[in-house]
Write a structure and sequence with these properties.
Layout (H helix, E strand, L loop, with lengths): L7 H6 L7 E4 L3 E5 L7 E7 L14 H9 L1 H7 L6 E4 L15 E5 L8
Antiparallel strand pairs: 1-2, 2-3, 3-5, 4-5
The chain binds guanosine-5'-monophosphate and zinc ion (ZN).
Length: 115
């Protein structure tokens, strides 16, 4: 499935729900988290619906690499100069709330709300 009509992040990809976008290419979208845990908190997602890291295989390595590889540029553009965290929550025990794969990237001066 490349699009899930009930998925909130698929709706963001389709423009049906607004988001504060910071980056977009053919395969990947990045936008600000609606409830940031840190002064800068973005989510980088595949445009294609992938439920979670559980569903990722070797065929997705370029896509996952891209999600990681765009993040330094985006954080630099957002003024983060002192490091940041990448977090991926996976499944129920991994505390994943939105069931569309996403990479949290968080930075900026502490203290942060979480982490
Ligand atoms: P999870 O716990 O699944 O790893 O994180 C989901 C994240 O998505 C949360 O940090 C939450 O604030 C964010 N989020 C949930 N719904 C929306 C939304 O409609 N728009 C945006 N921009 N972020 C969302
Ligand atoms: Zn989705």
């Amino acid at each position: 499935m490349s699009h899930d009509a009930n998925c909130i992040f698929c709706k963001i990809v389709a423009g049906q729900i607004p988001s504060k976008k910071v980056y977009e290419d053919e395969d990947v979208l990045a936008f600000h988290d609606i409830h940031p845990w840190a002064p800068v908190h973005i989510l980088i997602i595949p445009k294609r619906h992938i439920t979670s890291m559980v569903d990722v295989g070797l065929e997705d390595q370029a896509l996952l690499g891209r999600m990681m590889a765009v993040s330094p540029r985006l954080m630099a553009e957002l003024g983060v100069t002192n490091g940041y965290r990448h977090v991926v929550n996976t499944g129920r025990d991994g505390m994943q709330e939105v069931m569309h794969l996403h990479l949290h990237v968080m930075g900026g001066p502490r203290p942060w709300a979480k982490g």
